[in-house]
Specification:
Blueprint (H helix, E strand, L loop, with lengths): L3 E5 L6 E7 L4 E6 L4 E6 L4 E6 L4 E7 L4 E5 L3 E4 L5 E5 L8 E8 L5 E7 L18 E4 L5 E3 L8 E6 L5 E5 L4 E8 L2 E10 L5 E7 L5 E6 L3 E5 L5 E6 L5 E7 L5 E6 L6 H4 L7 E5 L9 E2 L1
Parallel strand pairs: 6-25
Antiparallel strand pairs: 1-24, 2-3, 3-4, 4-5, 6-7, 7-8, 8-9, 10-11, 11-12, 12-13, 14-15, 15-16, 16-17, 18-19, 19-20, 20-21, 22-23, 23-24
Amino acid sequence: MTETRRVHVGGDAVGESPVWCVRTGRLLWVDIVGCRVNALVPASGEFETWKLPDFVTSIGLCVDGRAVLGLRREAVLWDWGRSTETLAFPEPDMPGNRLNEGSVGPDGALWVGTMQDNIGPGGEPVGMTARAGKLHRVWPDGSVEALSEDIFGICNTMAWRNDGTFCCADTLEDQLYVYDRSPSGLGRRQVLLAGGAPGLPDGSALDSEGYLWNCRFGGGCLVRISPEGAIDRIVELPCQQPTSCTFGGPDLKTLFVTSARFGMSAERRGHPDEGAVHALDLDIAGTPAFLFG
């Protein structure tokens, strides 16, 4: 049985987008509704947080030491509180959408998925009425490229396999997909996993054996999925709404899991496991994060 430990109690409304910085030994993640970027040094417990004026949907690391952030509508270059530079507005003609999943790909670009905005001006949940999300790629020069014409309800999970295929999910459809690679972006899409596990698919991390570790939002667990789409194992978590995960630690064998309190009852929202960061020590390593630029 895999043991899970709580490594940070921060009460994140929507903890998301964890990424491990090999250079500094820090875990970075965002609280979307809390408008925060968080940093934790697990070895010492040192914690730092930055408040931003907008919802922060994702974080990636840059070659030059800065970070690339997804905000509500735009992607920005961010210098750890010292400066913020607008990079791109991926969907300027879709004012009812917001950015959601975001991750730096092996091409050095920021890949982002969008969705109909489900967050009110005060951070409260808003019901969705349409499936309007798409996948885009933001290059370091600020240009934006549509990756596919496929429509998503809630685009989640971004993982690139060694064979060049790309894994992603649609949370509302309860499906994980694999795209073939294409010179112009993404090619044919196939279903990797449809249902078959508790909760709904949220963020994921890929291990060195090519298996996908998928957070099951509302299901309180992680699911390890083989390259062929078979469920290899299910790991129970103490939080009900795990959102995303990343491999970190000195040997990349610790899987860090973020979680959310968004939409929970007041009683459950106050539990220290909800909105916390959890960790699992595994005998399988992950792969280091790609760098923007």
